[in-house]
Design goal:
With 340 residues, the protein is an alpha+beta fold. 24% of the residues lie in helices and 36% in strands. Helix 3 crosses helix 5 and helix 6 packs across helix 7. The radius of gyration is 20 Å and the shape is globular.
Length: 340
């Protein structure tokens, strides 16, 4: 039976490298996944008697692989670029967030961080009515590589379930009655210092946009992030159904026509009234998209945005062509919604 892996899962290779899986669409011979942890005698994280280091920036991940493990860099003809990916024959273990929920619920003595993660998931279940089997715990907790400062990464599967949990989070944060809250100004300053290392944005815009997001915040005093994914039966695209061709780089101004997929990973914003400010000019440019969670909830329907990123031509299975702006690969990629 072929290996199935999706966003939020992690893959371990025979060399002890651990990759986080990106998206739901993968080539027949590989899983698209990006390096996250590697064995390091000086690392500060422990797992099965070995030390690990976490690799943060995309630039650093590429550097490590190009230098030491080039077999995990490949050219993808469908996505039209060099990417990180694990050949299926090199997959030693697949870590699944849903399994972690089951494991922690049965664990006699979870540590304090694991206990908080399970408590958060149970609160979301209670307020949304979504079953625990449609929830997962990802990130360092999934791998057993968490530290005292680790955040809680929750995953919700299925579009209807995602809307229910997102609505519940919004309601909880508005009432302010539980251990779940939005980021404070001080919290956002810390988040800005971390994210600005590999994603540029003026601090005043960052603070305004991030403060209103409901997919992230504090549970007690620990950071959390909720990732919303369609379930397997809701993913209609198969590898090769769409071809993505690099077409340049551009800065645009546009209006958000539809934000209904802004909470999902990958996120997508349908746009109109597009004006090219710099770079490659193409038509029709229909959407802004990203595989990175930091661009979720970035703009709302009706808002004007300024965005900068990679221009891609998208060719559908029936031959239809359009263009999109893809965010997240470069430090200079951004999307700023302007206040109404």
């Amino acid at each position: 039976m072929p290996i199935k892996a999706r966003e939020g899962d992690f893959i371990e290779t025979p060399e002890g490298l651990i990759f986080d899986v990106k998206g739901m669409v993968h080539p027949p011979d590989r899983i698209v996944a990006y390096l996250r942890y590697l064995i390091d005698p000086h690392g500060k994280r422990w797992k099965d008697g070995r030390r690990y280091t976490k690799v943060y920036s995309l630039r650093e991940r590429e550097k490590v692989l190009n230098k030491r493990y080039p077999q995990y860099i490949y050219y993808d003809p469908v996505f039209g670029e060099y990417m990180q990916g694990v050949p299926r024959r090199h997959v030693l273990t697949v870590y699944k967030p849903q399994d972690k929920v089951t494991e922690l619920l049965k664990k006699p003595k979870p540590d304090s961080i694991e206990a908080e993660a399970i408590e958060l998931v149970q609160i979301l279940k209670e307020h949304s009515g979504v079953k625990l089997e449609k929830m997962g715990i990802s990130g360092s907790i999934l791998l057993g590589l968490h530290t005292e400062k680790s955040d809680i990464d929750v995953i919700i599967y299925g579009k209807k379930n995602c809307i229910s949990v997102y609505t519940a989070l919004n309601s909880i944060m508005k009432r302010g009655e539980t251990p779940i809250r939005r980021y404070s100004y001080e919290d956002l300053l810390g988040l800005y210092r971390f994210r600005s290392k590999d994603t540029w944005m003026p601090i005043e815009d960052f603070m305004r946009i991030e403060q209103r997001k409901s997919i992230q915040g504090k549970f007690r005093e620990r950071d959390f992030f909720v990732r919303f994914l369609p379930d397997w039966n809701e993913v209609n695209e198969k590898y090769g159904d769409r071809i993505y061709i690099p077409a340049g780089y551009a800065k645009i101004k546009a209006r958000v026509l539809d934000d209904s997929e802004s909470i999902f990973t990958p996120c997508k914003y349908l746009i109109c009234d597009v004006e090219f400010l710099e770079g490659t000019k193409v038509s029709p440019l229909r959407e802004v998209a990203s595989f990175r969670g930091r661009f979720c909830e970035q703009a709302k329907k009706g808002e004007e945005v300024i965005a900068q990123g990679k221009v891609e031509k998208v060719i559908e299975k029936d031959g239809t062509e359009f263009f999109r702006l893809l965010l997240g690969a470069r430090f200079t990629d951004f999307m700023i919604s302007k206040p109404r």
